[in-house]
Structure formats: C-alpha cells, structure tokens
Amino acid sequence: MLEQLDQLYRESLETLRAAGSTAGLEAWYRQALGRKGQVTLITRQVGQLSPEERPAFGKRVNEIKNELEAAYEARLAELQAAELEAQLAADSLDVTLPGRRPWRGRLHPSTQTLREIYRIWGDMGFQIYRSRDVETDEYNFELLNIPQDHPARDMWDTFYTTTPGVLLRTHTSPGQIHAMRQYCPEPIRVILPGMCYRYEQITARSEIQFHQVEGLAVGRNITLADLKGTLADFARRMFGAERQVRFRANYFPFTEPSAEMDVECHLCQGAGCQLCKYSGWLEILGCGMVHPTVLRNGGYDPAVYSGFAFGMGPERIAMLKYGIEDIRYFWGNDLRFLEQF
Ligand code: FA5
C-alpha cells in the first residue's frame, strides 16, 4: 500500500509540472487533492491495513499531502506570473493618448446672476433675508396696501391654492412686511431673493415662474435721492459704468412715489432695435419710497421713519447682460443653452 502511495505521489508531481495554465492546475488540484481526489480516496483504504501498518501509512499520507499542497502553491505562483507577463506583452497600452475629459457641471445662468446680484448688494451693505414661496393673501396683497377687490390686483395674475387665502407669491414684496415686523424698530437694509409665480401668458419676456430680488431700506432719513443713487450705483456695478440708466414714474400701491428703472439696451446701445421695441431701453425693476401704510403695517411710525424698496428680475437682467433673446430658455433645460454659461 505504501508503494502504491509513493507511486501516486510521483505521478501527481509529474502531472503537476505538466500543467500549463492556472485552469489546468485547478483541474489537477481537484483530481489529486480534492474531496474525491486520488490521494483522498487512497487514504480511505487505511481500513484494509493491519493495525501495525496504519501509523506509518498515516504519517506518509500526511507528508505527501503537505508536499503536494506546497508544490501546487509554488506552481500556481509560477503560472500566474507567467500569465500576467503574457497578458501585459499582448495588451499594448499607449500612455501618451489624451484622456477623456470628465463631464463638468455648471451653475445655472439664473444662479450665476443671482450670486452676482448678492455680491453687489453685499458690497453695499445689504443682508440677504429669505421669505416664503407660499404666502397668504394678507401678506401678498392686503398689508401691501392692495385690499380685496382693488383694481391694482389685476397687476398680478395669481395662482391660488385650494386653501382659501393661501397663494403662491406673485412678487417678493410680502417679504418686506416679514422683515419689518422682525426688525422693527431697528433700521433695515436687506435684499429678499426668491421665486415668484404668476398665472400669465408665457412669452419671450414673461414666464409663469421667475426670480425676483426685492430690496428694502428703512431708516430715519431715507430719501428718493438715496433710492436713485443706490440703484444707479447697482446698475454701474452690474452692467458697467458706460451703460446709461433712467427712471420713469410708475404706479405701485405699496410705494409712493413709484418708478421703474430702465437700462440702455445692450443689443443696439440705445439706438433702438426689436429687443427693446425700438425704445433703446429695457426695464429691469420697479421701485419707490415705501408707502406710509406699508411702513405702519410693518410696525414703523411713518412720521419718524422712511424707506425705499425695489424689485428686480434676475432673468431679465441675465437676458440684458448675456444677450439672451427668449426667457423660455431658462427653464427649458436645453444643455446647448446651459453649457454656454
Ligand atoms: C413688482 O413685482 C413689484 N413688487 C416690484 C416692486 C418692489 C416695486 C418694491 C416697488 C417696490 P413688477 O411686476 O414690475 O413689480 O416686477 C418686477 C420685475 O420682475 C420686473 O421688472 C421684471 O424684471 C420681473 N418680472 C415681472 N414679471 C415677470 C415675468 N412674468 N417673467 C420674468 N420676469 C418678470
């Protein structure tokens, strides 16, 4: 039996050396040392031996198993190294080829414009005040001096919710009341950015959803000259010193007097073109001195305090700054448009 064992050992070693691949080696392992392998099977024959012969046989079986395991490991390492070598030689890798550019995300043009606006107002000492998108009729209209059934409500086509008295804000102006009620009687210098919603006809210049940046300054000696000077300074910082601005008288129920500010058209440099409807000017914001009723609703005594407010449209400003001819591009999600920024 011992002789048979040695014979098996020699043959196994020979076939092991002949295995030319790791796959072949695996097959060898199953055949020789696996659960149903030859060495395992011969071990089971130990019962046929006399009790005296068994210890020597058991010892030899263990030696052979260990040696075959070691030989297997050595051959496996040898074959793996050779296979890796062959694979590297076959796969030529050109390290000089340019890599693929990773896809880079960008900030939306509205976000870029908003950040530019925040930076400019921040430099002028205005803090950001966040108000809410879903408002009550009271804040969006009544406290801003626009009572129920007042014709001025037609200026803001409104999305109403199914809850009575709750709507999507049509402008950022209700934030003025929130800020005043929070800060009263301190002086205020804030901008209030956010999304506004209007049930309007969508056109090249008007969307049903757009940003506004409201501004509010309240103090003891604020005048119309402060309003004009501050907004003209903003326009210089935003569009450059050479771009002209003008103020036109207008009507808003929550400011008195009220105005709109126009910036010289970027496309025709004021000469007149289709974009500016041949006027040479583009409107970017509404503004005015805070109405005494609104100051009172915010908690300030209009006999002591005064203030100015304005509301600008960042999408309209971006259109002016970058020469975008249609506001619908902003929410169209067309990458060909967005990638230009
Ligand atoms: C207002 O909404 C006032 N609340 C602004 C204001 C604030 C006046 C404080 C006085 C004091 P208006 O509806 O004109 O005003 O809108 C202000 C700006 O928002 C416009 O100049 C324009 O830039 C932008 N805007 C208005 N409607 C749209 C729209 N449908 N799509 C895109 N931008 C718009």
SSE map:
Blueprint: H1 2-18, H2 22-32, H3 38-43, H4 53-90, H5 109-123, E1 127-128, E2 134-136, H6 137-140, E3 166-168, H7 174-183, E4 188-197, E5 209-219, H8 224-239, E6 245-252, E7 255-264, E8 281-290, H9 292-298, E9 306-312, H10 314-322, H11 335-338
Parallel strand pairs: 1-4
Antiparallel strand pairs: 2-3, 4-5, 5-9, 6-7, 7-8, 8-9
Residues 171, 173, 198, 200, 206-207, 210, 212, 214, 252, 255, 258, 283-288, 309-313, 315-316, 327 line the site of adenosine-5'-[phenylalaninyl-phosphate].
The tally of helices reads 11
- Structural category: alpha+beta
Number of domains: 2
- Tell me the number of strands: 9
Q: Which overall shape is indicated by the principal axes computed on the Cα atoms?
A: elongated
Q: Portion of residues in helices? A: 40-55%
Main β-sheet, spatial strand arrangement = 1-4-5-9-8-7-6
Q: Taking all residues together, what is the mean pLDDT?
A: 91
Low-pLDDT windows of residues: none
CATH topology of the largest domain: BirA Bifunctional Protein, domain 2
| Corresponding CATH superfamily of the largest domain | Bira Bifunctional Protein, Domain 2
Q: Whole-Å distance between the termini?
A: 85 Å
